[in-house]
Amino acid sequence: MDPVSQGVLGASASLSVSRREHLVLAVLCGWLAGMAPDLDSFIRSDTDPLLYLEYHRQFTHALVFIPVGALICAVVFQFTIARRLEFKLTYIYCLVGYATHGLLDSCTTYGTQLFWPFSNTRVAWHAVSIIDPIFTIPLLLFVSLGAILKSHRWGYIAVIWACLYLLLGLIQGKRAEHFAVQLAASREHNPVRLETKPSFANILVWKTIYEFEGRYYVDAVRVGTQMQLYPGKSVRKLELSRDLPWLDLNSQQAKDLERFRWFSNDYLALSENKNNFIVDMRYSILPNQVTGLWGIQLQTYKTASEHVEFVWDRRITDTDKQMLLKMLTGK
Q1: pLDDT digits (tens, 9 = 90+) for 46-81
Q2: For 134-174, what is each residue's pLDDT tens digit?
Q3: 141: how many CB neighbours lie within 10 A of its CB?
Q4: Which of 84, 220, 245, 297 has the greatest number of beta carbons closer than 10 A?
Q5: Is 229 buried (19+), middle (13-18) or exposed (0-12) by CB count in 10 A?
Q6: By the 8 A CB rule, do 123 and 111 touch?
């Protein structure tokens, strides 16, 4: 999730186990340790744009790395912000803060390699959006109250809130999935696979995507007291021989395409708007769109050793904002 959510959840965990006399330091250690795994974002290459995708949410987010990551944080903090604490306590506060990060990321849809190095499977429980103020703001409030009132009980309340909200997200996801299965059946489709994902900053409107006979079908559903469908579109699944017949399968671009296929869990399609642009179908500004938030650009003129380009498209138009608001309000 976003750094604020990661930090405040780490602070909530450290607050819940802290001693009253150094509660603020415990919160600070937990906050910073809760954000620390995302330092893997600095693993980048000027020539290989997909290197970032391979290492983000990898070893620093793995369960086996939690004690190591916490130790690194504790050593750094012991000589900077936590000089007044015993090292054992600094390590404990860092440990519980650091441990929340990978688990929270796994509750999003992006995918986290929790079981590295034993498996490179990207765990994604689809319970919450990468940014969700309804999840984060109460956590900020509870942690602030704990620091002001010098009470670790607010840490318990914050952790309980986080667990209940994520549980609600899982329930909402199951409701959306059940609806998507029925929707596919109403179209006489038997999906090869089907996924649901919360849309941006909420767990009310969900993106549904399923694969059937070589096509992806994308829709949105508002999961309230009643289910409301916002129909989307369908696009053909990427097929190299048909969509990119010119691509040399031994070239670096072809290898990069396979790397991107792993990252996107093979939800790939050729863009309708750009030539030779491959879109990750799982993400879009509006949940019923097929345009995609990111993708890779291949070029016919590149040499066999040149990499693809990784392209973000985070543009949000006024029309997009109005449409998402209508979905959220059920209009």
Answers
A1: 999 999 999 999 999 999 999 999 999 999 999 999
A2: 999 999 999 999 999 999 999 999 999 999 999 999 999 99
A3: 15
A4: 220
A5: middle
A6: yes
What are the tokens at 134? Answer: 């309804």
